[in-house]
Automatic annotation (TrEMBL):
Substrate binds at S256. Its cofactor is Mg(2+). One of its GO terms (molecular function) is NADP binding. Gene3D superfamilies: 6.10.240.10, NAD(P)-binding Rossmann-like Domain. It comes from Natronoglomus mannanivorans. The active site is at H112. This is Ketol-acid reductoisomerase (NADP(+)). Involved in the biosynthesis of branched-chain amino acids (BCAA). Catalyzes an alkyl-migration followed by a ketol-acid reduction of (S)-2-acetolactate (S2AL) to yield (R)-2,3-dihydroxy-isovalerate. In the isomerase reaction, S2AL is rearranged via a Mg-dependent methyl migration to produce 3-hydroxy-3-methyl-2-ketobutyrate (HMKB). In the reductase reaction, this 2-ketoacid undergoes a metal-dependent reduction by NADPH to yield (R)-2,3-dihydroxy-isovalerate. The lineage of its organism: Archaea, Methanobacteriati, Methanobacteriota, Stenosarchaea group, Halobacteria. The keyword Protease does not apply. Keywords: Amino-acid biosynthesis, Branched-chain amino acid biosynthesis, Magnesium, Metal-binding, NADP, Oxidoreductase. It catalyses: (2R)-2,3-dihydroxy-3-methylbutanoate + NAD(+) = (2S)-2-acetolactate + NADH + H(+); (2R)-2,3-dihydroxy-3-methylbutanoate + NADP(+) = (2S)-2-acetolactate + NADPH + H(+); (2R,3R)-2,3-dihydroxy-3-methylpentanoate + NADP(+) = (S)-2-ethyl-2-hydroxy-3-oxobutanoate + NADPH + H(+).
Length: 348
């Protein structure tokens, strides 16, 4: 633990693993986060069960890894910690199935606080409610763990009836590899608002929009799609890797002076005051609950807009060009080499 920062950050030495002794953890869902939490915990020596619906397409993968699978209700009945890792939009329905099995002193555990914060799930007073939210896609939570590295995570406690919620949450975070990189103490509100803002404005929405607009500007001006792909998409990873390793300065140090001068003088013309105002508007939609309402209604209506824009994204030219180019990399699977990275399953 360190007090150098504005928030409490815990590392492996701060964690008492005994809080997971004689404890069974039920992981509901075996998707991006679910498979990572279940496998990492199992390999950390935790007793893990996986909860999946009857005829679940995920059952085979979980069983092949030696995990015991039951329905969400069955595994919740056997576990003291129930980790809800099905998609946010199905959590309220799955919660209805497990609620009768929440016993005094159990922990209801989340990786994102949307349903608690926006009152879609109201847990009983006799359980702890915690969140361990890795700041990473689940497949990398798993990959980092296997590579003896870690993934930073957030820990929040919404309800602490036992008095052990923080310690149990930390033990959970350590078991999935988060304490190797740092576990930041936060609240459900802060996690939800920063996570939704980050994924919409920077990590997922902002960056894909930047890539597509850059690519389209070059292609529309007559440059080859292949050159535009390498420039605006492929090299982005390499630039971001440098920022990940050593901050903005390591990236600026590695690129040419020409790139540094051009980037420093032009970047703010792209992400300008207008873009900043849009960011603030999006943050307000998150804070007010407007985004959550829109997303819940979109699901109740059968996802009409989501289906359409998702398809348009898949059909974007950059996807087809990128797929062809990536297939030709000398290390690609089509070259006969085995790829050890776990496959990222399609959502639907
Ligand atoms: N994706 C990520 O990296 C991150 C996710 N989170 C949070 O983690 C949680 C889980 O998200 P994520 O891992 O993306 O989820 P996924 O979409 O990957 O979850 C898929 C899993 O949920 C199961 N599932 C889907 N629908 C149902 C249903 N109706 N009933 C029972 N099981 C169902 C699927 O099983 P089946 O085969 O039966 O469909 C599958 O095992 C969310 O709260 C999310 O916000 C937090 C940080 C990052
Ligand atoms: C950035 C998207 C994310 O918040 C994540 C991987 O952390 C998510 O909800 O998937
Ligand atoms: Mg996130
Ligand atoms: Mg998120």
């Amino acid at each position: 633990m360190t007090d150098e920062f504005t928030t409490q950050i815990y590392y492996e030495d701060d964690v008492d693993e005994s809080y997971l002794e004689n404890t069974t953890v039920a992981v509901l869902g075996y998707g991006s986060q679910g498979h990572a939490h279940a496998l990492n915990m199992k390999e950390s020596g935790v007793d893990v069960l996986v909860g999946l619906r009857e005829n679940s397409s995920s059952r085979k993968a979980a069983e092949e890894e030696g995990l015991e699978v039951g329905t969400p209700a069955e595994v919740a009945a056997q576990a003291e910690i129930i980790s809800v890792l099905v998609p946010d939009t199905v959590q309220p329905a799955v919660y209805e199935e497990i609620e009768p099995h929440l016993e005094e002193g159990d922990t209801l555990q989340f990786a994102h606080g949307l349903n608690i914060h926006y009152n879609q799930i109201t847990p009983p007073e006799h359980v702890d409610v915690t969140m361990v939210a890795p700041k990473s896609p689940g497949h990398l939570v798993r990959r980092n763990y296997v590579n003896d590295e870690g993934t930073p995570g957030l820990l929040a406690v919404y309800q602490d009836t036992t008095g052990d919620a923080v310690q149990r949450g930390l033990a959970y975070a350590k078991a999935i590899g988060c304490a190797r990189a740092g576990v930041l103490e936060t609240t459900f509100q802060e996690e939800v608002e920063t996570d939704l803002f980050g994924e919409q404005v920077v990590l997922c929405g902002g960056v894909t929009s930047l890539v597509k607009h850059g690519y389209e500007t070059l292609v529309d001006a007559g440059y080859s799609p292949e050159a535009a792909y390498f420039e605006c998409m492929n090299e982005l990873k390499l630039i971001v890797d440098l920022m990940y390793e050593g901050g903005l300065s390591e990236m600026w140090d590695s690129v040419s002076d020409t790139a540094e001068y051009g980037g420093l003088t032009r970047g703010d013309r792209v992400i300008d005051d207008n873009a900043r105002e849009n960011m603030e508007e999006i943050l307000e939609e998150v804070q007010s609950g407007e985004f959550a309402r829109e997303w819940i209604l979109e699901n109740q209506a059968g996802r009409p807009s989501y289906t359409q824009i998702r398809q348009a994204e898949k059909d974007h030219d950059i996807e087809e060009v990128g797929e062809r180019l990536r297939d030709l990399y000398s290390w690609s699977e089509s070259d006969g080499e085995e790829d050890e990275t776990p496959e990222v399953p399609a959502d639907d």
